[in-house]
Amino acid sequence: MKKPKPSKGKREPRPTTTAPKLPALPTYEEAMIRRAEALVERVEDKLAGSARQWIKAVLLTRLRGELTDRQKVIDAARDGDDLSHDVLMAEFHGLLDEGIMPPASLRDYASRTEGHPRRGRGRVWYDDWRRNWGFMALIVLIGVEFNLNPTRNRAGEGPCAASIVAIALQRRGFKRVSESRLTNLWGQLGETAIQCFALHRVWPELAPFVGMSGDPAKF
Fold it and tell me: Which of 13, 33, 137, 145 has its CA 20 to 30 A from that of 202?
């Protein structure tokens, strides 16, 4: 008789080893948004608050350096622009404090106090001036870096620079900044933004002297 074969014991199941999960790689669109967020972070302080004091300081410096037509600023003040008035009076008193006789046109303006404008209530053109141009600069930079169109015609299209920047701004806590709003702003300011960017790349030393040469409302 054949001897019965010894029964083999059941093998213990081998412990399963699972590789640690690696974080998912960001999509290309997510990478663009993160890049835009980094750019927003660098200029965040310049996108908040009114640009009044900044414009006033820059325009005053340009007047003193004869880089801006003073008569156009006087005309803007006489038309009711109170920021132009503040700049002119700051220049007038600054020259007197230095013992320098102000130009005749400035003396004439300062003496006609009945025509000086008063600051009104509500929002004015310079409240969002630097903020809006900052948005335009971000759209140009993202568009150039990732070869994107600034805006898109149909919602079904792929991302554009405005859509990427809008998401980045929202993540950084900016309110009331949608793609549609940036698209509308681009329609008003985009062409000038491209020209300024192109000039800065080709001739950076000239760029600061372009603009701010007339009515402050038309920098």
Answer: 33
Q: Which two tokens stand for residue 101?
A: 């006789």
**117 near 80, Cβ under 8 Å?**
yes
Tokens representing 185 are 């702003």
Long-range contact set of residues 106-110: C-beta below 8 Å, sequence gap at least 24: 106/70, 106/74, 109/74, 109/77, 109/78
CB 76 within 8 A of CB 68: no
Half-sphere exposure of 17 (CA within 13 A, CB side): 2
- Coil/strand/helix, residue 170: helix
| DSSP letter assigned to residue 159 | -
Our measurement of the distance from residue 96's CA atom to the centroid of its chain's CA atoms, rounded to an integer in Å, reads 36
Q: Measuring CA to CA, how many Å separate 133 from each of 126, 138, 151, 190? A: 11, 9, 16, 9
Model's pTM, two decimal places? 0.68
Q: Are 64 and 91 in contact (CB under 8 A)?
A: yes
Please report, to the nearest 10 degrees, the dihedral formed by the alpha carbons of residues 183, 184, 186, 187 taken in order. 120
Query: N- to C-terminal Cα distance for the chain?
Result: 110
Determine the Cα angle at 201 with ends 53 and 29, to 5°: 85
